[in-house]
Design goal:
Number of helices: 10
Helix content: 40-55%
Strand order of the largest sheet: 7-6-5-4-3-2-1-8
Largest sheet: 8 strands, parallel
CATH superfamily: Alanine racemase
Shape: globular
CATH architecture: Alpha-Beta Barrel
Low-confidence stretches: 1-21
Strand content: 15-25%
Number of domains: 1
Oligomer: single chain
Distance between the termini: 37 Å
Mean pLDDT: 89
Order of helices and strands: HHEHEHEHEHEHEHEHEH
Radius of gyration: 18 Å
Structural class: alpha/beta
């Protein structure tokens, strides 16, 4: 019965129906428990899965509540929006860029973020590499793989990613840590499973290639509606926003 009640609360967060009993802190507790349960269900260590609290359009005060509740990685989609928030929030958290990154914003992204999840071309990686060299740092990045073939999704095709990884091994100021993908939207979390499973297979293939400076430690996949399935399929970074902060305001 307790599980049913919890699932009801989660559904309320996702569909936008009002419920007053949950705070950001309580949402985080529930999400962590679901992550733990999903990980243990498939024999994984729950500590091998990290939560990226996606705070696009969320005001700093509510983000601060998430930080106080234990959120340690924050995910942003837009460089300018992130800059404003980083200026006013605590520095103890790690900021990850998860949106589509334009090359003309690369130098700002290199300064602001500790990881870029969405590198989908060698040209962007090369630009990030040059900017990271100027900053005197090595920037961890993830390669975004387009497995859904949707016009609205960014990412490189699987066959291109494999070739790109070999080129990226020559760059010294970016460190390829793994892969990211976004499956098509669906009300059924199980619809995401084939895409998550496919990304894990691509990860395994790339790991076998043993490319210098390319490691396959991370799989960034799973959002508010399907993160438990992502955990079961090997996700190490979950990008969760709505289930923590509630529905975003309508534009």
């Amino acid at each position: 019965m307790a599980t049913d009640l919890f699932n009801l609360c989660a559904l309320c967060v996702l569909c936008g129906k009002r419920f007053d009993v949950s705070t950001i802190a309580e949402n985080l507790v529930r999400i962590r428990e679901r992550i733990k349960t999903a990980a243990l269900r498939v024999g994984r260590d729950p500590h091998s899965v990290r939560l990226v609290a996606v705070c696009k359009t969320v005001e700093p005060e509510r983000i601060r509540q998430a930080i106080e509740a234990g959120a340690r990685i924050l995910g942003e989609n837009y460089v300018q929006e992130a800059q404003k928030k980083i200026d006013v929030l605590e520095k103890e958290v790690s900021w990850h860029f998860i949106g589509h990154l334009q090359k003309n914003k690369a130098k700002y992204a290199v300064r602001l973020f500790e990881m870029i999840h969405s590198v989908a071309s060698f040209a962007l990686a090369e630009t990030l590499n040059g900017m990271a060299q100027k900053e005197g740092k090595v920037l961890p990045i993830l390669l975004q793989v387009d497995l859904s073939k949707e016009d609205t999704k960014f990412g490189a095709p699987e066959e291109e990613i494999l070739r790109m990884a070999e080129q990226l091994g020559k760059l010294e100021a970016v460190s390829i840590k793994g892969l990211m993908t976004m499956p098509p939207y669906s009300d059924d979390p199980e619809d995401s499973r084939p895409y998550f499973k496919k990304l894990r297979i691509v990860q395994e293939r790339m790991a076998q290639m043993r490319i210098p400076r390319v490691s396959m430690e991370e799989l960034s996949m799973g959002m508010s509606g399907d993160f438990e399935v992502a955990v079961e399929e090997g996700a190490t970074l979950l990008r969760i926003g709505t289930a923590i902060f509630g529905p975003r305001p309508m534009k």
